Amino acid sequence: MQVEVCAFSVESCLNAQKAGATRIELCGGLYEGGTTPSYGLIKRAREATTLQLYVMIRPRGGDFCYDDEEFLVMKNDIEAVKELGADGVVFGLLLPTGEVDETRTAELVELAKPLNVTFHRAFDVANDPFEALEAVIRTGAVRILTSGQENSAVDGAELLAQLVQKAAGRIDLMAGSGVNNTNAVQLVQTGIQALHLTGKAARKGQMVYQKERVSMASVLPTDEYEVIYSDTLKIRSVIEVVSGDKVNY
């Protein structure tokens, strides 16, 4: 069972490697659900780790219907990621009507070669999961990250199992959203090929002085003086429960 860690920092990448993860999905924009990380972060993550490194290609938060300028930005970012030595990229594009934007997705898959592509949770807001499955397969992507079109993968477990059956080995299905050591085995039983988690934890940052009343964001669900990171023990606990083995680190 592959275990992918969604990481937003070099620290989290190192923790994923230390825990025994298979792969890193490197992102920026934590509070937007993941956007394209900076050039510097990608470069340092590649230098610091030996795990498979997949980089998010998402020019902004919000929906997954992109205009021509945003599409050009995605192309530029893919080219940059290839130069930095990543192993794959992660993206998802939809049409205004909720279908997979098959034409432009296939164009990006071709551009990314020889890097592999994961189609991310844009899949979970597509209007028909089975039509979306076939469309993504046709684009040449190797993997779909999905919660089974629910807010958590556990709630979407029934659909995950159906998608695995429909895919019939033509593409990998990776379960993500709310994955932890209490539900990992249940998700593995759906037949999926990989698990995706952040292993999220938080600690206070280094600032002693904290200015009240001033925020850097209009909408923020947590304390701006916190540091969010992927916790080694949380990741390792998932790996151990699905493998049945203790992970040495």
Structural commentary:
The structure is a single chain. It contains eight helices and ten strands. It is α/β, with parallel strands linked by helices and 249 residues long. It has a single domain (2-243), classed as TIM Barrel. The chain has an eight-stranded parallel β-barrel, surrounded by six helices. Strands 9-10 form a two-stranded antiparallel sheet. The longest helix has 16 residues, at 68-83. The protein is globular. The chain starts with a strand and ends in a 6-residue tail after the last helix. The relative contact order is 0.15.
Topology:
Blueprint: E1 2-7, H1 10-19, E2 23-26, H2 39-48, E3 52-56, H3 68-83, E4 88-91, H4 102-112, E5 116-119, H5 129-139, E6 143-146, H6 157-167, E7 172-176, H7 184-188, E8 194-197, E9 200-204, E10 226-230, H8 232-243
Helix pairs in contact: 1-8, 3-4, 4-5
| Known CATH architecture | Alpha-Beta Barrel
Helix content: 25-40%
End-to-end C-alpha gap: 19 Å
- Globally, the shape reads globular
- Number of discrete helical segments: 8
Largest sheet: 8 strands, parallel, barrel
Number of strands: 10
The domain count comes to 1
Order of helices and strands: EHEHEHEHEHEHEHEEEH
| CATH class category | Alpha Beta
Q: State the assembly state of the protein chains.
A: single chain
The order of strands across the largest sheet is 1-2-3-4-5-6-7-8
**CATH homologous superfamily, by name?**
Copper homeostasis (CutC) domain
Structural class: alpha/beta
Average pLDDT number: 94
Percent in strands = 15-25%
